[in-house]
Amino acid sequence: MAAESARKFEALEAQATALLDVFKRAGYEQVAPSIIQPADVFLDQIGEQVRSRTYVFTDLAGDELCLRPDLTVPVSRLYLERHPDADTPARYCYNGPAFRFQPDRNNQAHPREFRQAGIESFGAKDKESADVETVLLAVEAVRSARLKDFRLRFGDIALFYAFIDALALPDRWRLKLRHYFWRPQAFHALLSQLARSERPDAEGPVAALAGTLDRDDPEKSEELVACHFDDKGLPLAGNRTLSEITARLLDLLGDLRAEPLRKEIATVIDYFLAVSAAPEEAVERVTMIAKGACIDVAPALQALVRRFERLEQGGIDLGKSTFATEFGRSFEYYSGLVFQIEVGGEGDASQIAGGGRYDGLLAHIGAPREVPAIGAAIHTERLLAAVERGA
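Now predict its structure.
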């Protein structure tokens, strides 16, 4: 990894000071969460795309740890250390390094060590106001760093969930599609299979083994799997335990026995996920799709429209923004509005900042209940590069 020049270091420090000044003036307390984090917390919550690129290691005490691949989870853990009952609103800001493996080591837009400056808000009861504040504050911050020409991209996980839940789907496929939303290629492959009345992985010895198990008796099923492995002289696969292998087989059995998905339902989902337009047009198209499918997603749409109205009142030019129903960012803990600040360029190099709502995350990492939470992070090296290009 190339050493950082003194000039770039000074420029990044000056930029970080400007960003943090914006956040602190808005009432966010600056914090510095630990760089080294417990690996299981991250690997369970961040999603497959980032999980596979996280630096994981075992220390001399045998604890599995990781270098933080983002700062949202570390700041969330810090909040719970201070407020174990998760009953106190708090707002934090930060600036520091994060780490992710990058296959292309020479791509400067994808460094393995990079900086994030951002904000996290916990426990705000007025979710709508918190969402609007977060977007406006992220925009104000990048403008304070002299970024001039950028656009906003929005998505809404809650709208996707409302749409899927309103359709006449077998519960099995509803849960699967919600799970695969974060991986568009796998999502559309599954949807295509279901539209053809095919079952995923329905053929072969694995499906045959799954067919011998009993979903109502996991212990008996695990014994059957153990006997199968012994009879065939097979070792356990990778690092998976016998219980984990059995659970996957029982999940496959559930797929094999689930009701088929009607082709017209798959077509409606495809139409919904193809929506990508300026927010006003996108809302109109989703409304028409829902009406054609005879489903009601009005509450989720109205909540989204209210946020857009308030963002426009706050100075956001929605005519230059995009709302895409398939846009969800790469972290699987998001649960509501998501957004991204982009500049001209290709791929991740154009993604300067982003964030969203993640109400379920804190309950998964130890809070006694779900906690309203939203945040945003700025990739400061990309921001600096964009400003230097004159964006």
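The chain has a mean pLDDT of 87.
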